[in-house]
Amino acid sequence: MKCNVAVVFMHDYLDGDLAREEAKQLQEHLGQCPSCYARYESLERTDAFVRTLPIEKAPEHLADRIMKSLPSPRRPAAWTSWVRRHPAVSAAAIFMVVMLSSFVAMWNQDQELSVTGPDLEHVVIEGNKVIVPEGQKFSGDLTVVNGDVQVLGDLDGNLTVIDGNVSPLASTAHIAGEIKTIDRAVDWMWYKVSSWFGTLAYGS
């Protein structure tokens, strides 16, 4: 047996964990190696001394104080738990926030006059003003963005004015549909969403 193996066996032997065959080999080695025998005697005295020391009893509530001093595990925020439990509602809410942000951004950026309708040759545009002339008939819906509207003739459809004004109707004017005036970003968003869903329903 080599000395380095004997040193490892010494500790196990003193703890009573060494097998009988290995203990026999260790005893034979100690009888032949004065250096290892001296080391073993030193370890044996130290082990005996430690065993004679009185066992100090730990103070009461020491375990409780130690546990209280440990940092408590971080609890996930309430909103993250709610998101995990309601993924569909969370996705819908995020979608609505993105839509609202994009609509508001478009509302703030789009400041040019825009006129849409199926019969634009019967309207007159003067600067920021859209006019349906007297004696003219506009067929279909007319939508004006960032402009003022004056109806002097016939409008066979709905009139929608976004971020603009409708002049008082002349005595010769006639509008077959509804007049919608939208001057807020939220109303405009609702108008866009309604139009989008209306397009989907019409397409299907």
UniProtKB/TrEMBL annotation:
Stored InterPro entries: Anti_sigma_zinc_sf, Znf_put
Signal peptide: none
Taxonomic superkingdom: Bacteria
Alphabetized Pfam families for the sequence: zf-HC2
Family matches, as Gene3D superfamilies: Anti-sigma factor, zinc-finger domain
Domain Putative zinc-finger span(s) in chain numbering: 3-36
Similarity-based family: Belongs to the zinc-associated anti-sigma factor (ZAS) superfamily. Anti-sigma-W factor family.
Protein name in UniProt: Anti-sigma-W factor RsiW
Protein source organism: Cohnella silvisoli
Taxonomic lineage: Bacteria, Bacillati, Bacillota, Bacilli, Bacillales
